[in-house]
Specification:
Number of helices: 33
Largest sheet: 7 strands, antiparallel
Number of strands: 12
Helix content: 40-55%
Radius of gyration: 28 Å
Oligomer: single chain
Shape: globular
CATH class of the largest domain: Alpha Beta
CATH architecture of the largest domain: 3-Layer(aba) Sandwich
């Protein structure tokens, strides 16, 4: 989740849209009420992808850091690739969505007692899974305590003869109970309180299930129910009572589990039980009474060290994190410290075992920092950065790339894409320069070698969430010395092709924050601006790369939202489909169909007049365009979305063809090899930044700038010399008076254009 424009002070508190993301991706069945921060991990290997859909996150610590900040930021979860084959197939998800769509809520809300149990047992798992979304009176009728007691008692009855598969509908019963706890957690005033009656009933049901002989079968059939039952432990806040189940699963794991995604999921879900247990008052006393769970975690990680670096390595690194988390208790430190140290000694800061080392090190840094020398984890964030981010590349005067493993060709490719986007962006938004008080003149682009490396290192180095597709940290643009950056990773799943995931989306956030949105992240969120912030980043990313946004076009055919509704989108009230797909559709429509309104809106955003912008959206526009937007959606879904906005500046009008001016261009520029096309422009005093772009044509033109004399290869203060004619320079605080620009023909060129804006 790049988070759009996060103040650095908030970066360690980041989570966003967890519930919305899980709803949109079909992950609801995995969430316990308390595990609201357990957003799915990224898109790595097949097993890892499947695990992300149904289990605790690969990095549970990242989730914990995020759990209290849902309103602070937004992370680009939708910017991850879809789940791949392996584990839970895409076809299964499609069937699940279809089943959920045909599920009738009234079948559950209108029944009580044995009739309710019969209905649950006769429904599909996916139908029951859809009940996590219930609200209002439906939530109350389905999940009031008396209903939950009935279903918990049914679990005890079914568990008595549990055959090790779903033939007696144990999965549906477990999942219904999980849905009830989840809905009640978020709607306690509507559903009503849960008390001792339910606690007694759920303990009876879970006791019976985990005592059933077939609950220990190693098979897909049992694993599907077992994985949900383990998560139900946390849903019901019975974490302390079932530490024995946690130990049994961790101790019992061996290679026979590897053939079953569900069994792996059941094992991994034990980490949710442990992680969330720390929030329950009875958890620490239970561990103090029997601290053998600490030995179990250490033994599991040590015994399965060979899994690290593979698609099941998350099981080991999560074991290390959950062991290290017990360092927070002085009463357990004497027991925990040597166990943690032993695992640190079995792993290293980089390489195959890095995920275990970093997870443990982060726990020592957070809970036992005074003893960092004992662990060898002092100055952790700086040590990690120095060890991992070893590539430093100056892309331009405003862009620096810091990377883990980019080659020279890959650096050139990324740099060319970023610099070319500058001109495209300015051509679309038609800005007049940076907003007042924005000093973010340079951007640091951090690129990890893979999504796994990102998840391993980025959270500790930058204090961010990593269960996402990248993150932009704006900081305070008015503060001296502030360094904005976005953190991204290579998309290893498209190799041997090279792609930095979300590169252009994230870079748009930087440009938009600098040239369109006054102040910092918090300032821009005082009224709903998400439709623009995310929709525009999507729009530029897809249109600049000339890639069709098929997901958004498919959504257009569903006519889910009116335009006036999309203007109300926030990170709290929307899922990823509304934020990204529908944000894109709203922005594209407004750019193409109502440019004057959009220009007026951007003028308000740039001035920080958020209430004035809101008036334009909700009063001046209101519902006026809803019918036309609806018709446009039909056409767009049918293949006629209209031409994307062409980002062009008007031709400069000065009689001297060498004269440039503010927000204009000279086109048709040409020069023979070794010669120049010269230009100049007058810059007023107090100009914060000057952007110069060269685009189009044939040949190879390099861009040179000089603040006090004609710009040449031997006399310049800035230059851009990539291959071809797409060059960009951003000059901070250019001198007042005449400034000079040239295109040098590294190879003879024709048909180029030079554009200036300040």
């Amino acid at each position: 989740m790049r988070t759009f424009r996060i103040p650095f002070a908030s970066a360690t508190r980041t989570l966003t849209l967890l519930l919305s993301f899980c709803l949109a991706l079909g992950f609801l069945g995995a969430l316990a009420p308390g595990a609201r921060a357990a957003a799915p991990a990224g898109p790595p290997t097949a097993a890892g992808q499947a695990k992300a859909a149904k289990s605790a996150p690969r990095s549970t610590e990242a989730a914990e850091r995020r759990k209290d900040a849902a309103r602070e930021v937004r992370a680009d979860a939708s910017k991850r690739p879809p789940l791949a084959s392996g584990g839970e197939p895409a076809a299964v998800r499609a069937q699940a969505l279809a089943a959920a769509a045909t599920c009738n809520t009234a079948d559950f809300t209108s029944r009580t007692g044995s009739a309710l149990v019969t209905q649950i047992k006769s429904a599909s798992v996916d139908c029951v899974n859809s009940l996590f979304t219930l609200k209002g009176n439906d939530a109350k009728l389905a999940f009031t305590e008396s209903q939950m007691v009935t279903v918990a008692n049914a679990l005890r009855t079914v568990a008595a003869g549990y055959p090790g598969d779903d033939s007696t509908s144990a999965t549906q019963i477990v999942l219904y109970l999980r849905a009830g706890y989840f809905v009640q957690w978020y709607n306690p005033d509507v559903v009503g309180p849960y008390g001792s009656s339910l606690k007694s009933a759920i303990e009876g049901g879970l006791d019976a299930f985990f005592a059933a002989p077939h609950a220990q079968d190693v098979s897909d059939a049992n694993g599907a129910t077992l994985a949900e039952a383990v998560t139900l432990i946390d849903s019901a806040a019975e974490n302390a009572r079932y530490l024995g189940v946690v130990k049994r699963l961790l101790a019992g794991y061996n290679s026979s589990y590897d053939a079953s995604w569900w069994m792996l999921n059941a094992v991994n879900n034990t980490y949710t039980v442990l992680w969330r247990g720390h929030q329950n008052s009875d958890f620490l006393p239970a561990v103090q009474a029997d601290p053998s769970v600490l030995d179990t975690l250490q033994s599991f990680a040590s015994r399965n060290n060979a899994l690290l670096g593979g698609d099941k390595g998350y099981l080991v690194s999560n074991a290390g994190r959950e062991l290290g988390r017990f360092l927070q208790y002085p009463a357990l430190q004497a027991k925990t410290r040597p166990l943690v140290k032993s695992l640190l000694d079995q792993s290293s800061i980089t390489g195959r075992t890095a995920a275990l080392w970093v997870g443990l090190a982060e726990m020592t840094d957070g809970y036992d920092k005074a003893n960092c020398a004992y662990y060898g984890t002092c100055d952790l964030a700086n040590r990690l950065r120095a060890a991992v981010l070893t590539v430093n590349y100056t892309c331009s005067s405003s862009i620096r790339i810091v990377a883990q493993a980019l080659t020279a060709d890959q650096l050139t490719t990324a740099c060319t894409s970023l610099k070319g986007q500058d001109a495209y962006f300015h051509g679309v938004v038609r800005d007049a320069g940076a907003v007042a008080g924005d000093n973010n003149t340079t951007i640091e682009v951090v690129v990890f070698h893979s999504s796994s490396d990102y998840q391993t290192y980025a959270g500790t180095i930058f204090g961010i969430s990593t269960d996402n597709g990248g993150m932009y940290l704006e900081g305070d643009p008015a503060a001296a010395g502030n360094q904005p950056r976005f953190v991204a990773y290579e998309a290893e799943w498209v190799r041997p092709d090279f792609q930095i995931w979300n590169l252009n989306h994230e870079y748009t956030h930087y440009l938009d924050g600098r040239f369109d949105m006054y102040g910092d992240f918090d300032a821009g969120m005082v009224t709903p601006t998400v439709w623009w912030v995310e929709g525009f980043a999507e729009y530029v990313s897809y249109s600049y790369r000339n890639v069709e946004y098929t997901d958004a076009i498919t959504q257009a055919g569903l006519h889910t939202y009116a335009l006036s509704t999309l203007f109300d989108t926030t990170y709290d009230n929307a899922d990823q489909t509304r934020v990204y797909n529908w944000g894109y559709l709203a922005v594209r429509y407004m750019l193409q169909s109502h440019r004057a309104d959009l220009d007026a809106l951007l003028a308000k955003y740039r001035a920080g007049d958020w209430n004035g912008a809101r008036t334009i959206l909700k009063t001046t526009i209101g519902t006026r365009y809803d019918a036309d937007f609806n018709a446009w959606l039909t056409a767009c879904n049918g293949g006629n979305c209209g031409a994307p906005t062409v980002p062009t500046a008007p031709e400069c009008t000065g009689a001297d063809t060498r004269q440039l001016d503010r927000n204009c261009r000279r086109s048709g520029v040409a020069a023979t090899t070794g010669n120049y096309a010269y230009f100049y422009l007058y810059v007023p005093a107090g100009t914060g930044s000057l952007t110069i772009t060269a685009t189009g044509g044939t040949g190879n033109a390099d861009l040179y700038y000089n603040g006090g004399a004609w710009a040449t290869t031997g006399s310049y203060t800035a230059r851009s010399t990539t291959g071809g004619n797409n060059e960009t320079l951003t000059i901070s605080n250019p001198p007042a008076g005449y400034n000079y620009i040239s295109l040098y023909a590294q190879q003879g060129f024709t048909g180029a254009a030079v554009t200036t804006s300040y």
